């Protein structure tokens, strides 16, 4: 039995929607990420939820970007980098003040941010504009992701996806 990825490769990278998979959601142009993500998840039944730890487990894997004009473009997740969460720093003099104690109490009840960046590498000849695209991965399935072009490395096209999640 042929899987979807092999079928796309044999067809020269044709659009997922074009091969009759019912995935033509029009996500190749920039859109509100939450709406696009909900639409693709509803269509595919994908229940994957991003996290820094989960993303690190996907590093080195192949992803497929479904571009409306260029078809399927293979991307590799090369790096997952954690971004430090900014926390207000208190000086030693403030540590005993009532204001510092209130700030510390408020921080204990404030949701934490988990911030990280995914860096993908794609073929040199295929370049896409920043936007929300349908993506596919063998492990996590079908989903929407906002990608932005990044600096070229060794002639390859690179992209980044940035996450800032309340945890």
TrEMBL record:
This protein's name: DUF6916 domain-containing protein
Any Pfam family hit: DUF6916
InterPro entries noted in UniProt: DUF6916, TAT_signal
DUF6916 domain location: 52-163
Organism for this UniProt entry: Duganella sacchari
